[in-house]
């Protein structure tokens, strides 16, 4: 039978197509799922690498003392402390981790700035934002400390420009702002009811889409000065994330990560502790557990922060399915590496394939040269102020790194504030109280640079108290003081107590075997050896943050005859000047003013 020309051409095309298809199949069989060739997807799934960190707090230099250590559990069951953190090492760690991962996105869960050491804090954290730009941070959610200097300053960190009061930090240079979007889905303007920053963003690469929603804790107004959150409203984390997850789904974005500045506490402090033992999420507690259980299954993973803890747990979502929830400690000491397997057909994450682990930002690895250059450049500007000696110590005085509710550095700060505000013309204070969260570091005996062992520099003092909180003196009755002590362990602080640091002469017993207000043994509260009189009025020194009723101490707002003095760091500097010298350094206090019953 004769084959017509049209049929011969058709057969020829079919044969060529079959040969090409066979060749393609051969190539595909030799390539891993998700591999790319010529820019086209060659498999149904692809692994997206999510690198994340949180609570950096402007620590571009390696944090000192215990603030720069993480605890690790060794294979034999013992634990060890490992030095970690600093922008030079975090940049190196992130860059190493990205190698061989064509789909890699880096995210952060708030408090990247604020409460920062002097080298960043002195310049309103412009150095830290510049460092994150160089690290190729893709997206960040806001935390409570992003509001320390108010909404306008947060917007400046995002958009750039010189500081409205202090001007340009570097002569001839205008701050460019962040290359990454800051997300604030649950923070709205009281008048317009609109989010003050973008609520979400979508990361895209070669057809892969991952949505990010950023929220801070709803209780931010309780832990930030009133000026910092003026005109803003903070909304429920669960409701907000669910709202925008639904919106992203309608846009065709099925893979979603929530950046939540709220966290939990694992049962053990070691960063490699298995918090999924004996079952999913059994080894973690705190606010994030209920938040995770309430957030829609549409969200595939939660990157969290705020508590400065390390964990990678699978807490069940509302449908009962395990979902990854992570946090990478603080100060850039750890980073989290999470694998999200993306299904190109469903455009969703295969949740059963999600894996995550925290990794130490070791100081034994090479430093990132661009970070070293950045630190030297900003350090040169800051050094004349930072290197000024303000005092001398005979040994480490732990604050942030103290394990007991009362810290030696807390005692020093309490004594400094009392002495500063004791003169009649300065406030006439009889005792001083300090919020523990305001103590950001330790004072370390060993020299950090060339200032000499035991020297406390202005920069080190600034690292301990970086908020420039103004000192106040207020009248409180004995009854109100008892209430304040009870508020340390009840109400907003019942789940995570905030034990106020006290000045010399003030003492009481804290019974942790009891619950709520009963933990304060009222009959034990004494001032200068005498029982506190509920009806008597006492003059109390504290920073303006505390006297404003923040940190879960509303009773302080009832204080009368308020006098505002100088900054808290001025008080610390004056105290070291009066009580230490090179030949007679200050010894660490015994920290025995609060008797703790366990």
UniProtKB/TrEMBL annotation:
Keywords: Hydrolase, Nucleotide-binding, Signal. One of its GO terms (cellular component) is outer membrane-bounded periplasmic space. One of its GO terms (biological process) is nucleotide catabolic process. Pfam families: 5_nucleotid_C, Metallophos. Residues 55-82, 579-598 are annotated as: Disordered. Residues 390-558 form the 5'-Nucleotidase C-terminal domain. Residues 581-598 have a biased composition (Basic and acidic residues). Residues 1-35 form the signal peptide. Residues 53-309 form the Calcineurin-like phosphoesterase domain. Belongs to the 5'-nucleotidase family. This is Bifunctional metallophosphatase/5'-nucleotidase. It comes from Streptomyces bathyalis.
